[in-house]
Design a protein that fits this description.
The complex is a heterodimer. Chain A has a domain at 1-39. In chain A, strands 1-2 form a two-stranded antiparallel sheet. Chain A has helices at 5-15, 22-35, 71-76; strands at 81-82, 85-86. The longest helix of chain A has 14 residues, at 22-35. In chain A, 29% of the residues lie in helices and 4% in strands. By secondary structure, chain B is an alpha/beta fold. Classes of the chains: A mainly alpha, B alpha/beta. The interface between A and B is large, with 57 and 70 residues. Chain B: Residues 27-147, 169-489 form the Amidase domain. Chain B: One of its GO terms (molecular function) is ATP binding.
Chain lengths: 108, 525
């Protein structure tokens, strides 16, 4: 069962990384094939395990501000900034469709 | 040079003034320079290290050292944040990122007066089992340059080219940390362990690699790979040192809600002499396909060692072992897909010049910043998390995870105290051979013996056991019960004493002084 171009395209959209080349797509195919071995295991009546610490009560801090005031520190690592803002390119513009995008999948 | 032997050497030497923290620091920095070809370090923090050493010296001068770790040079894997130092995760995505804070474990080391020499090399974002897939290049196993390896492996012609192409990998992904400890450039190093990334390179580099119980040590500041499995790992030259470092790092951290709240009491390891009350389990499924006959034999000898000393040694079964790699593959890629989503170029790290739209900037940034391995895992993870696949892959894997964890519960519940297994399938392979297979295949092969412990959150430790026919280190692994590190380390220490693993005879050619050998102290504590 091969993954369809639609799904590959969807994945590129969701992940915002690209398959790059045929090898990338093949890598996914192999990964799925590998993962399919899971279906050999009988898991009837077995609950999914989220965490090995599921039997314990995890600790939540009080919602009090204990640190901060480090705007300058944090902005230091950003490439584009204006005053105390991170600057992003315009939003609400969807990623170009498959036909218009620079992606390996175009040829498929 | 400080002679090897019993623990409590260097720390005692510092206390007695036989060596000063600055001398120690300078020696290590100098050794880092002369072993640069190992490529173990990404960043050497020379200035700050010397400052820390000076501060330590003042404290010793006043007779007020902070503890055993005061003045001890350490190194930290480059996926831990260390304030003011570049933290790259060996990826273009974080090149130039200067950490604004210390990871909790880094802070704890510094609070004890440890001297942070630098950040060590790894596979990009800790994804890999060779420490070969980072942007700074592969790490070389110091044993490649040992007399032991050269005598057994290098052809008699012994030319420069032969040495160049014969070097072996460190294993990974904490290869830089393992190499740093193994080559005496530091006395302890931090790694991380998600599928075996601390124990695997520890085995290949002949050092002790401890994976603590999940929830014992804070992950705050450790750039996450798999939140439900990651733990900081400890690499040292002997088990006692690992216990000391563990004592410094363990305990609840309000900044990491996955650390347990129980009070952790640092412990000294007793010198176990009577193992007759011990029950050692030998899981038969760990006789995995591809296990070298050498390691099988060493494992068997180790079991006999315990038996002859009076311990109960029994074969046990962990039936779901063979599915742990598949399970890990799905859960790991799923969590990675989520964790890597934070890298978008806006707040830190690499940012693409593309600025047509936010999404296209994100896409271009990630396209430019991540290597094939990382991208591959993100895409696979997203696939398994698609609505149509969620139940069949992600939830399914979570169910299998419970079965794997239950296998251990059953075995420990039946009276077994500790499990004894191999750590790796073979000794370290030459780099040229290792790169013939792709990262995922290699990881799947190499993680098979280590990652079930991550699935179940159990503590596990690699203890260097002997040398292979090629003169390279081979280690064995002990897996313990949750939060029973004291028992685990006590048994490991006893075993370490029995096997007397040989010290590496590192032959480092110095350009100015010709070849010389290092015989350094085995431990610091």
């Amino acid at each position: 069962r091969k993954v369809t171009v639609e799904v590959l395209d969807r994945l590129e959209h969701l992940a915002l990384v690209d398959f790059r080349d045929a090898e990338g797509v093949e890598r996914l195919q192999k990964a799925i094939q590998f993962a399919d071995q899971l279906h050999e295991v009988n898991t009837d009546g077995v609950e999914p395990m989220d965490s090995v610490l599921e039997d314990r009560c995890l600790y939540l801090r009080e919602d009090d501000v204990t640190e901060g005031n480090c705007t300058n520190e944090l902005l230091k690592n950003a490439r584009e900034k204006v005053e105390e803002y991170f600057v992003a390119p315009p939003g609400n513009i969807p990623l170009p469709k498959l036909e218009e995008r620079e992606t390996f999948l175009q040829g498929s | 040079a400080l002679k090897g032997g019993s623990p409590f050497q260097v720390s005692a030497a510092l206390k007695e003034g036989r060596v000063t923290p600055t001398e120690l620091c300078q020696k290590c920095l100098s050794l880092i320079k002369s072993t640069k070809f190992l490529n173990a370090y990404i960043t050497v923090a020379e200035e700050t290290a010397l400052k820390q050493a000076e501060e330590s010296e003042k404290r010793y001068g006043r007779g007020q050292p902070l503890g055993v770790l005061d003045g001890i040079p350490v190194a930290v894997k480059d996926n831990f944040n260390a304030a003011g130092i570049e933290t790259t995760c060996a990826s273009k995505m974080l090149k130039g990122y200067i950490s604004p804070y210390n990871a909790t474990v880094v802070q704890k080391l510094l609070d004890q007066g440890a001297v942070l020499l630098g950040k060590t090399n790894l596979d990009e974002f800790a994804m890999g089992s060779g420490s070969t897939d980072g942007i700074f290049g592969p790490v070389r196993n110091p044993w490649s340059y040992s007399r032991q390896y050269k005598e057994k492996s290098v052809p008699k012609s012994h030319s420069q080219e032969d040495e160049e192409s014969n070097w072996v990998i460190t294993g990974g992904s904490s290869g830089g940390s393992a190499a740093a400890v193994s080559s005496f450039t530091c006395f302890a190093a931090l790694g991380s362990d998600t599928g075996g990334s601390t124990r695997n390179p520890a085995a290949h580099c002949g050092v002790v690699g401890l994976k603590p119980t999940y929830g014992l040590i804070s992950r705050h500041g450790l750039i996450p790979l798999v939140n439900s499995m990651d733990v900081p790992g400890i690499l040292t030259r002997c088990v006692d040192d690992a216990a000391v470092v563990l004592g410094t790092l363990a305990g609840h951290d309000p900044k990491d809600s996955t650390t347990i709240q129980d009070n952790f009491k640092p412990f000294d390891l007793p010198n176990l002499t009577d193992v007759s009350k011990l029950s050692i389990g030998i899981p038969k499924e760990y006789h995995a396909p591809g296990l070298s006959s050498e390691i099988l034999s060493l494992w068997s000898k180790a079991a006999d060692l315990f038996k002859n000393a009076g311990a109960k040694v029994i074969e046990v079964s962990l039936p779901h072992t063979r599915y742990s790699i598949v399970c890990y593959h799905v859960l790991c890629t799923a969590e990675v897909a989520s964790n890597m989503a934070r890298f978008d170029g806006l707040e830190y790290g690499h940012r693409s010049d593309m600025n047509k739209s936010t999404e296209s900037m994100y896409a271009a940034t990630r396209r430019e910043g991540f290597n094939d391995v990382v991208r591959g895992r993100i895409l696979s993870g997203n696939y398994f998390l698609l609505k149509q696949n969620y139940e069949n892959y992600f939830i399914k894997a979570q169910k299998v995870r419970r079965l794997i964890a239950n296998d251990f519960v059953k075995v420990f519940g039946s009276g077994v105290d500790i499990l004894l297994t191999p750590t790796t399938l073979s000794d370290a392979v030459p780099y040229m051979e290792f790169i013939k297979e792709d990262n995922r295949t290699r990881s799947a092969q190499d993680d098979i013996l280590t990652q079930a412990a991550n699935m179940a959150g159990l503590p596990a430790i690699n203890v260097p056991t002997g040398l292979s026919e090629r003169g390279l280190p081979v280690g064995l692994q002990f897996i313990g019960q949750s939060f029973q590190e004291k028992q685990l380390l006590t048994v490991a220490k006893w075993f370490e004493k029995q096997v007397k693993f040989p010290m590496i005879q590192l032959e480092v050619k110095r350009h100015d002084h010709g070849a010389f050998q290092h015989q350094k102290s085995a431990s610091f504590s």
